[in-house]
Amino acid sequence: MNRNLYLAISTVLIVMTIIGFTFVSSVARQSVASADDAKNVITVNGEGVIKAKPDMAYINLGVETKGKTAKEAQDSNADTMGKVIQALKGMGITENDIRTTNYNIYPEQYFDDKTNQSKISGYHVTNMVEVTVRDVDKVGSVIDATGNAGANIMYGVSFTISDNSAYYQQALQLAAKDARSKAEGIAKGLGVNLGTPLRIVEQSNSGGTVYNINQSQAMKAGGTPITSGELEIKAQITVDYSF
């Protein structure tokens, strides 16, 4: 082999060996450093809760009618639902706050022993709407007014806050303080100094409650007592602290 070629190949091999050794050493040092960092971490969860009064409610109600024919059941339903919608408008509910959520037509069947066949005896029609009430003090009155107008299905009432962002920010601050307090307690128990946060993860937020009102409650003459109470706005975070 040519002497110059031999020297060139030898030089390349030596350089590659040095580079490989340097790379492996660097990775090893990083792995050790990462392992050391992982050991010096306190992980805690923090939760903050703010209570606030709701300012809006949703009511799910509807009308169910029966008839010998589908048209008869439809016409009866349309007439009654028209009265329900007029009652809602009379309570100050706008059309934009009345949304149809379900409309069904289905037959009522029975089994004829003489012919061994199923036969249709009539039809059912249901029309459901979701009503947005922007004054929670009117919820009971709205239920009574629609019941008197002919609404005979009531699925439930839910209360909410139209804009809970300010409350959620307060809940986040409480969650951060809660996490810090827990981490300080752990660090004190271990006899170490608590460092700065290495990682903060926002977990979730929530707010809202549902009150189910059955038909007998909704239709009673004495008025339907509905109380909105307070809603809880929660914030949860996970924090990694160094020590």
Automatic annotation (TrEMBL):
It comes from the Bacteria. The chain crosses the membrane at residues 6-24. One of its GO terms (biological process) is DNA damage response. The keyword Glycoprotein does not apply. The keyword Transmembrane applies. Gene3D superfamilies: Protein of unknown function (DUF541), domain 1, Protein of unknown function (DUF541), domain 2. It holds the Pfam family SIMPL. Keywords: Membrane, Transmembrane, Transmembrane helix. This is DUF541 domain-containing protein. It comes from Calorimonas adulescens. The lineage of its organism: Bacteria, Bacillati, Bacillota, Clostridia, Thermoanaerobacterales.
